[in-house]
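Hey, quick one: can you model this chain's 3D structure?
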Amino acid sequence: MRAILPGRNNQNNRIVLGLLEAVERESAQSQRRLAAELGIALGLVNIYLKRCVNKGLLKMAQAPARRYAYYLTPQGFAEKARLTLEYMSYSFELFRRARAECASVFEAARSQGYNRVVFAGVSDLAEIARICALEAGIQIAAVVDQQSSLSTFSGVSVVASFEKVEGEFQAVVITDLKAAQETFAAAVEWVGIDRVLVPSMLGVRVGSESVASSTTTAYSSG
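Sure thing. Here's the predicted structure for all 222 residues.
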């Protein structure tokens, strides 16, 4: 769940935790390798390493071939443990929030008599939404994701476009974490805004207003 709405401080802590974990596993790995593992720019790795050294979390030693090795200090081990616990608590809270919002979305869908929907976006949120949909007795026709290379996700077919969804469905649930706003716009263009359901935690907006959820009539892809 780390990908859901990471704030600036959470992003910073994620990088520090990843850096400390990587250094603990292998002290002499290159900054380029660390950058690839953490998914950040090479220059940022250097900045974070220096910051951790200055804070006393890491110590630096000369290594062969004009390289440096980094080692966790006792303070670094303590900080890694603290950040790990913080991340676990953060992830659990995000899961609870996502589950509650998805349950609310499907409650709204059921109130409109909807029993078959499409998810837009392969993600951790889609996995949570699938659980909530099953609990609400709502069938998932497919997951639409143009960027995914998967053929199935959590037992549901993944297709590249709404045109390829087999059978009838009544609404689209936005589950894209990387480009929710763009995916929302594409879904609205295909089925209309009244048939697009959005967990509010995604921060999708229409004009100056946030979107919670909306539903109306049935849609058939055939």
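One thing worth noting: The chain has six helices and twelve strands.
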